[in-house]
């Protein structure tokens, strides 16, 4: 099927494919009048992460797996409707939608009274209510140099009046960040009223208020009590609390016993049959509906798959590529798995897999014609169709730019050289700019005669080894040597932020239905955070800043086109694919739907123990 047509089909309604949602809840037989009722078995969700977490301080994390945890422990002012497609924003701790000035520069939010943080010794025996000042403090933490926040660029780009200056003051004086100093852009007007004032118009600022994984409220007492251990001591107002953590091995979270009365609400589209069925089943149910979540870290695909099909886990977060043909031949759940009651959930992700090229690297960095030609040649040598049909087992479509599906700026009809595979053109570019074999050993050298060696960062797992073979094959086809730099994923991420990797392939998921979010990967102020390529372009930065303030519409879409052309021109990144995500669950997991732009879903699902096989 044509990839563009396939994308449109997925975006318009192929949100998931699952078995019937009409399975009834089991009913227990009444106990005799003289005997007490046996307590119901706890509802437990068990699944595995394929990559280890890094910690649980919202201001200090950027990886998806840590943010899955924080999004269930902490709460932002707003959230995304669980069932709505297209996406809708709804209040979470806020009492209603914000009051917004006509110029989109002043946003006023009222918080619901009676929301409380989970108990912690830092509160000295008092029940601690969430107040507006907690959000003031939480947003300021991103500006505190001591936090070393990878999300500072995002918060800094909000343009909160006075926040950047407060940060610069701390950097200049080398004194502790002054949390007590009031700023015009971020104020608690009273106990429950919060006001944001922005330097420039921000029509989509609401998306920055709807990310619990990063912008959930933290309590100052907790952050100060555990100042050197904030990554391991999350205390929020959310539906779950962390009960046990063995780093890079196991996490256990339990339902927050003091969580406020909150009920299942959603607004699925009228023609969304699955969403309407879920709403009919769960509307009015108190959430969360499950009691406990147990998460293992299983990096290798085979044991992760076997633990799921063997019944040890209830949910499979992404079917490993190696098992796609077994689990979903031709995109449909295998009959033998369907008979066992497994459910398949299939969606085109709002995400991209990409390789960044370090623009500060002495071999392939820089902006001169010869360096740009080298990166273009490397990009042209990457056989994306082979990657899709081989390692990815057909579960992706070629990407034309860094802007992912489901976001503004994305155009399924757009075509660029980003997806081209052309060995003759790659060789011609290398020859033209002097990357030729100068010593007769069969491998290309640098124009100055030194060896041309491309060092690829990678991980020590079976799936990564398959990609390593592709790197060698692709670069070998243009006579370029390849060597590999191995390391665990969290360590490679640290190296990438520090600018110590030549190139590395990873993936990025959109945090909002706006393509601007992904542009941070090439925005120069984000160097050291999400701009792993360390790309610097005044033209790109200007476009990013224009897109921030413009309302949605054709003129804004035209600027996104310029952004895509800059990427294709300088090649700081090769965007490989947009991935099709295939999740699976056991029959007793009811109500799952992968969120497009958030990481929280535990509170919206149920586990029906009556459907589990007897053990």
What is the name of the CATH architecture of the domain at 351-580?
Answer: Roll
CATH fold-level topology of the domain at 351-580: Dipeptide-binding Protein, domain 3
Q: Can you tell me the CATH superfamily of the domain at 351-580?
A: Dipeptide-binding Protein, Domain 3
In terms of quaternary structure, the protein is: single chain
Mean pLDDT: 93
C-alpha Rg, in Å?
25 Å
Largest sheet: number of strands, sense, barrel closure:
8 strands, mixed
Strand content: 15-25%
Number of strands: 20
Give the overall silhouette. globular
Distance between the termini: 44 Å
Give the fraction of residues assigned to helices: 25-40%
In CATH, what is the class of the domain at 351-580? Alpha Beta
Point out poorly predicted stretches: 1-35
Write the layout of secondary structure elements.
Blueprint: H1 3-12, E1 44-49, H2 64-73, E2 78-80, E3 89-91, E4 99-100, E5 106-110, H3 132-143, H4 152-157, H5 163-173, E6 186-190, E7 193-197, H6 212-215, H7 220-225, E8 240-246, E9 250-255, H8 273-282, E10 292-297, H9 301-309, E11 315-316, H10 324-327, H11 335-339, E12 343-348, E13 351-357, H12 369-380, H13 384-389, E14 396-398, H14 423-432, E15 453-458, H15 462-476, E16 481-486, H16 489-497, E17 503-509, H17 516-519, H18 538-549, H19 554-570, E18 573-585, E19 589-590, E20 606-607
Parallel strand pairs: 1-10, 15-16, 15-17
Antiparallel strand pairs: 2-3, 4-5, 5-7, 6-7, 8-9, 9-10, 11-18, 12-18, 13-17, 13-18, 14-18, 19-20
Helix pairs in contact: 12-14, 18-19
């Amino acid at each position: 099927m044509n990839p563009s047509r396939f994308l449109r089909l997925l975006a318009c309604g192929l949100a998931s494919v699952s078995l019937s949602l009409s399975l009834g809840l089991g009913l227990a037989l009444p106990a005799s009048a003289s005997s007490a009722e046996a307590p119901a078995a706890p509802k437990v969700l068990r699944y595995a992460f394929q990559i280890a977490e890094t910690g649980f301080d919202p201001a200090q994390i950027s990886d998806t797996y840590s943010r899955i945890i924080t999004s269930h422990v902490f709460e932002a002012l707003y959230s995304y409707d669980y069932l709505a497609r297209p996406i809708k924003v709804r209040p979470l701790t806020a009492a209603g939608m914000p009051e917004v000035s006509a110029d989109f520069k002043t946003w006023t939010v009222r918080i619901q009274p009676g929301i409380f943080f989970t108990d912690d010794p830092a509160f000295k025996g008092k029940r601690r209510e969430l107040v507006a000042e907690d959000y003031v403090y939480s947003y300021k933490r991103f500006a505190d140099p001591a936090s070393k926040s990878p999300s500072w660029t995002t918060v800094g780009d909000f343009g909160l009046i006075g926040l950047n200056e407060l940060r610069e003051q701390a950097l200049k004086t080398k004194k502790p960040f002054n949390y007590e100093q009031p700023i015009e852009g971020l104020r608690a007007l009273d106990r429950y009223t919060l006001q944001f004032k922005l330097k420039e118009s921000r029509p989509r600022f609401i998306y920055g208020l709807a990310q619990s994984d990063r912008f959930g409220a933290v309590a100052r007492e907790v952050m100060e009590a555990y100042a050197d251990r904030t990554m391991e001591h999350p205390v929020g107002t959310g539906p779950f609390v962390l009960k046990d953590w063995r780093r890079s091995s196991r996490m256990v979270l339990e339902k927050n016993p003091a969580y406020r009365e909150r009920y299942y609400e959603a607004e699925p589209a009228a023609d969304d049959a699955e969403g309407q069925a879920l709403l009919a089943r769960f509307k009015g149910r108190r959430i969360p509906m499950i009691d406990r979540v147990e998460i293992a870290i299983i990096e290798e695909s085979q044991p992760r798959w076997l633990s799921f099909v063997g019944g040890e886990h209830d949910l499979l977060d992404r079917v490993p590529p190696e098992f796609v043909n077994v689990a979903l031949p031709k995109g449909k759940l295998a009959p033998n798995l369907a008979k066992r009651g497994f459910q398949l959930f299939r969606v085109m992700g709002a995400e991209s897999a990409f390789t960044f090229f370090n623009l500060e690297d002495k071999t392939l960095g820089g902006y001169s014609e010869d360096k740009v030609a080298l990166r273009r040649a490397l990009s042209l040598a990457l056989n994306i169709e082979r990657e899709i049909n081989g390692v990815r087992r057909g579960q992706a479509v070629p990407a034309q730019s860094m802007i992912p599906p489901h976001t503004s700026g994305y155009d399924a009809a757009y075509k660029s050289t980003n997806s081209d595979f052309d060995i003759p053109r790659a060789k011609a570019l290398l020859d033209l700019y002097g990357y030729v074999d100068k010593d007769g050993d069969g491998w290309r050298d640098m124009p100055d005669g030194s060896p041309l060696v491309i060092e690829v960062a990678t991980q020590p797992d079976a799936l990564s080894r398959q990609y390593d073979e592709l790197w060698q094959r692709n670069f070998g086809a243009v006579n370029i040597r390849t060597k590999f730099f191995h390391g665990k994923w969290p360590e490679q991420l640290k190296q990438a932020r520090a600018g110590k990797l030549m190139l590395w392939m990873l993936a990025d998921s959109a945090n909002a239905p706006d393509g601007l979010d992904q542009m941070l990967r090439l925005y120069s102020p984000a160097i050291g955070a999400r701009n792993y390529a360390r790309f610097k372009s005044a033209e790109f930065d200007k476009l990013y800043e224009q897109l921030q303030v413009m309302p949605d519409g054709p003129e804004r879409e035209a600027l996104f086109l310029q952004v895509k052309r800059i990427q294709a021109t300088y090649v700081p990144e090769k965007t490989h694919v947009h991935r099709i995500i295939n999740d699976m669950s056991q029959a007793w997991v009811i109500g799952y739907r992968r969120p497009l732009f958030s990481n929280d879903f535990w509170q919206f699902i149920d586990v029906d123990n009556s459907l589990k096989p007897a053990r």
